[in-house]
Amino acid sequence: MPTVDAISDLANRFTNDLELCRREDREFEIATELNEIADALSASKDPKIVSVDFQPMYNAVNHHCELYELVDRRTDCVVVRRGGLLSMVVKLNQNVALASAQELKFYFSFGSRPNVEKGTQAHLVVTGKTKIEKPHDDWDIRLVKEAGKKATVEVQIPTDAPVGVWKVAAEVTLRNQAGERHLRRFDTHVYILFNPWNENDGTYLPEEKMRQEYVLSAVGTVFVGSYPHTRGRHWAFGQFDDAVLPACMLLLERSGVSAEARGDPVRMSRALSKMVNSNDDSGLLVGKWDGEYEDGRAPAKWLGSIEILEMYLRTRQSVKYGQCWVFAACLNTICRALGLPCRVVTNFASAHDTNISLSIDEYFDEDGDQIDAADRYVNPAGIRDSIWNFHVWNDVWMSRPDLPDGFGGWQVIDATPQETSDGSYQCGPASHEAIRQGRVDLKYDVPFVLAEVNADVVRWQKDDRAEGGFKKLATQTSSVGRLILTKKAGPVATGGFFKSDREDITWEYKPPEGTRAERVSILNAARRTRTARQVFDMPSEAKEDVTFQIEDRDQVPIGDNFSVTITATNTSSEVRTINVVMTCASMYYTGAKAHTIKRHDGELHLEPSQTKTMSMEVYYSDYYSKLVDHDLIKSIVICNVNETTQCWGGEDNLEVHKPDINIEVLGSAVEGKAVPIKVSFDNPIPLLLKECCLKLDGPGLMRPKTVPLENIAPKGKMNFEMNLYPKKAVEGTLIVQFNSRELCNLTGAKKISVASA
After folding, report:
1. How many domains does the chain have?
2. Residue 70: which CATH number?
3. Which residues form the Transglutaminase-like domain (predicted)?
4. Residue 253 among known ligand-binding residues
5. Which end of the chain has less Cβ packing within 10 Å, N or C?
6. Domain assignment of residue 202, yes or no
7. What is the C-alpha separation between 365 and 360, in angstroms, rounded?
8. For residues 37-53, average pLDDT
C-alpha cells in the first residue's frame, strides 16, 4: 500500500499538471480574444488603441534595471527609475498622425486616491513635439517617431516621483473632430524607483564604483564577532529576485506612509526601519534573543534575504526569527531594490543607552559586587544599560533638505527594535555629520546613535550619603565604538576572516578616540541633554593605585583549551589585598550571558611595587556544550582592593573558531547547463555529527535550497557533490552553510563566473 508521502507527492504532481493545462487554456482564450478585438478595431473608422508595448527590457537597460528578474520573467512588469525616460510603442487601428489626425493621452496614477496636485497623478498629451521641455521635476512627453500604425513616445518621469507601482491608461480620439473616445487601462505594473544615477534625485551618488556596490551588488559581507577579533559572514541580498519588489510593495502598503510621501527618501527610509521589524505593524521579521527558536528558524541559520521576503509575501505574516544582522541585511536588500543606496554597518562594542545620558552605567553594591536589574537594588534608570559585542545597522545615502547645509550623505537607519522613536520602533535617518559633531538637536535619533558609538562607561557604587544613592567611581572614555566596519566597494572576499573586503569607517562617525575633537563632540552633545549633564558634571571618587591587565586572547580553534589570566601591579607604597572573581561564560552577541562555563575566586596579596598574576584554565569539555549563536565567550575579572575604594573590571571577548567550508567547481560553468560543484570540510571535534544539512544560496546561480546529509564521523571528512543550473551568464557568489545538532554555522563561499552558451 502506498505511503502517505507517496500519495502526497502524487497528488501534488497531479495538481501541478492540472494547473499547467488550465494556464495553457487561459492563454489560448486570451490570444483568441485579442485577435477578435484587433479585427473589430481594424473595421472601426474612429481611432482605437490596439496595444501599447512598454518595452520592458529596453527601458530596463536604459535605467540600470536589467538585473531585475521581473523584467525577464514577466511581460506585464516594467522597472524604471525616476528622472529617466520611459519609452512606449503605441499601436492604433489606423495610420498614426498624432500632430494632426489623432489626440493621444496617457494617464499615470499612484496610490488609492491619485491627485495631480499631490504628485500622484499625471495627464500627458502627445502634441507632436519632439523634445522634452519641462524641468526635471515635472512630467513631460515627446514623440520620437511615427511609422504606419505605430508611434514611439518617451515619458519624462519626475525626479521626485513617488516610488512604487504606478498604473497606466491611454486614451485616443480624433483631433478637432467629433468621434468616440477610446480609453484603455493596462494591467502592466510600472515600478518607479529612486535614481542614484541622476544628479537631481535626492539619492544621487556621484561615483559609479559606489553605485555598483551600494545599489547593484547582490551579495555582500556582514561583519560579526567581538573587538578586536572580527570576522565576516556572507549574505545573499538578492535584491533583483522576482519576489523582492512585490514584497517591498506589501511592506510599504502596510507602513502607513502616504502615497505622496513615498518620493521622499527621508520619510521612506524611516518607515522601512519600522517595517522590517514587527513590533508595531505586520512587519517583515519577529525579533528574538532568548535562544528558543523551535517555532521558527534561528537567526544564525539564515543565509540571505530572498527566502525571508518570499515567505513574507506568501504568508503575509511576519517571519520568525531575526536579530540585528538579519534585520540589517534584509533592510539592505529592500533599500537597494528600491534604488536607495545602502550598506550594512557593524559597530563593535556597541552601547545601548536607555536613558539618553550618553553613558553606559554599571552599578556596584557596597562590597564591590555588580548589581543586576533583578537584584535587591534597582538601577536609577530602571532599565539596565548594556554594551553589545557588536550591533549591525544600515547607512543610506541621501540629501537632507530638512537639515542645515552639510548634513547630507550617509545617514544611519536601524531596523532592530531597541527603543521607540515618535512612538514606534524605528530609528533614523541620523546624519553621520550630526553624530560626528554631537548635534543631538537634529533629526532623527542622533542622541541614541551617538551613544552607540561614543558613550562613556561610568561605574557607580551604592552610597546612601550620595545624591541619588550612588557615587561615581570611575569613567572609561574609550570602551564603546571600538571599531565600525562595512564591506568596501569591490569583490566579495571568500576565505579566511574576510579582512580583504572590510572597510574601517570609524572616523566617519567620530573623531579619533582620545583626541580633543572627540571629547569636544561628546561634551557638546552632553550639554544639550539634561540627563547627560548630570553624569558628565559629577566627579569620580575612586582612588586608583593598583593597575590591572587581562590577557588578550585571539580566536580559539574549537576543540582547544584556553586560560584566563590577570596581572596586577601595586604602584603604591603600601600593601594591597585584592579580592579577585574570575568568570567565563558563553554570550549572546547582545552581551547577555547565555551559560556560565567556569568561575574562580581568589586573593592576591601585593607588597609595594609588586606584580603578580592569577590564571583560570578552561577546557574544551567545559565549554563545547554551552556555546550559543556566534560562538562567543566572554571572560570577566572583577577586582576589589580591600584597603581603598578601587573597583576594577576587565573583560576579554573571544570567538571559538570553526573551519571554513571548501567549495570547488568541478567543470565549466555555462548558462543553461549543469555546473558540478563539490562541498567539503573536516569535522574538527571528536563527536559524531547528527541531523546534518547544507543550506545553499547564490543570486543568479540558484534559488535558496536545503539539502539533508548523512551523519559525519568524529574527526571525519564531509564530501558532497551536486549540480547548479544557472539560467544566464552571471558573475555570482555561491554561499554555503552547514548545520548539525553538535556543530553549527560552518560557512563558505565561492565566486563562480557563468559564461554565455
Report:
1. 5
2. 2.60.40.10
3. 316-417
4. no
5. N
6. no
7. 17
8. 77
Q: What is the pTM of this model?
A: 0.86
Residues 293 and 360 in one domain: yes
pLDDT of residue 70: 95
Q: State residue 752 phi and psi, 5-degree precision.
A: -130, 125
Dihedral over alpha carbons 612, 617, 618, 620 (to 10 degrees) = 150
Q: Three-class SS of residue 598?
A: strand
Under DSSP, is residue 566 helix (H, G, I), strand (E, B) or coil?
strand
Our measurement of the distance from residue 394's CA atom to the centroid of its chain's CA atoms, rounded to an integer in Å, reads 6
Q: Of 657, 680, 696, which one is at a domain's C-terminal end?
A: 657
* pLDDT confidence of residue 310: 96
Per the annotation, does 518 bind a ligand? yes
Collapsing DSSP states into helix, strand and coil, what is residue 166? strand
Residue type, 99: A
Q: Under a CB-based contact definition with an 8 Å cutoff, are residues 384 and 371 in contact? A: no
pLDDT digits (tens, 9 = 90+) for 610-653: 999 999 999 999 998 899 888 889 888 888 888 886 778 777 88
- Cell numbers for 726, please give them: 544557472
State which H helix or E strand residue 275 sits in.
helix 265-275
Burial of 275 (0-12, 13-18, 19+ CB in 10 A): buried
In this structure, are 140 and 159 located in the same domain? Answer: yes
* Residue 504 covered by a domain: yes
d(CA 376, CA 373): 8
Task: Look at residue 199 and tell me if it is in a domain.
Answer: no
Query: Residues 319, 448, 256, CA angle at the centre, nearest 5°?
Result: 45
Sheet with 717-724: list strands edge to edge. Answer: 662-665, 675-682, 717-724
- For residue 615, which of 633, 630, 586, 637 has the smallest C-alpha distance? 637
Q: Which residues are catalytic?
A: 324, 391, 414
Question: Is residue 189 located within the same domain as residue 216?
Answer: no
Closest to 122 in 3D by CA, of 137, 101, 144: 137
90 shares its domain with 174: yes
Residue 18's CB is within 10 A of a number of other CB atoms, namely: 10
**Do residues 377 and 462 lie in contact, with contact meaning Cβ atoms separated by under 8 Å?**
yes
Q: Alpha helices, DSSP H only, in 496-628?
A: 506-509, 516-527, 530-536, 620-623
The whole-angstrom distance between residue 736's C-alpha and the CA centroid of its chain comes to 19
Handedness of CA 739, 745, 748, 752 (dihedral sign): positive
3-state secondary structure of 551: coil
Tell me the β-bridge partners of 318: none
Query: Facing residues of 380 across strands?
Result: none
Helix, strand, coil % (nearest 5) of the chain? 20, 35, 40
pLDDT-derived band at 290 (thresholds 50, 70, 90) equals confident
Residues forming a β-bridge with 564: 616
> 577 near 648, Cβ under 8 Å?
no
Domain with 372 in it: what CATH number?
Answer: 3.90.260.10
* Whether 62 and 173 share a structural domain: yes
Residue 380: which pLDDT band, with cuts at 50, 70 and 90? very low
> Which stretches of 44-80 are DSSP H helices?
56-62, 69-73
Domain finish residue from 657, 677, 692: 657
**Cβ distance 259 to 329 under 8 Å?**
no
Is residue 46 within 8 A of residue 103, CB to CB? The reply is no
Same domain, yes or no: 462 and 574: no
| 552 & 479 share domain | no
Helix (H) or strand (E) holding 603: strand 593-606
- 85-92/219-226 β-pairing: unpaired
Q: Are residues 135 and 268 in the same domain?
A: no
Question: Residue 200: inside a domain, yes or no?
Answer: no
The candidate with the shortest Cα–Cα distance to 303, out of 661, 654, 586, 593, is 661
User: Do residues 657 and 623 touch, judged by C-beta distance below 8 A?
Assistant: no
Q: What strands lie across the sheet with 546-550, from one edge to the other?
A: 546-550, 562-570, 611-618
Q: Give the rounded distance of the alpha carbon of 295 from its chain centre.
A: 23
Helix, strand, or coil here: 116? coil
Cα 222 to the chain's mean position, in Å? 9
Per-residue pLDDT band for 529 (boundaries 50, 70, 90) equals low
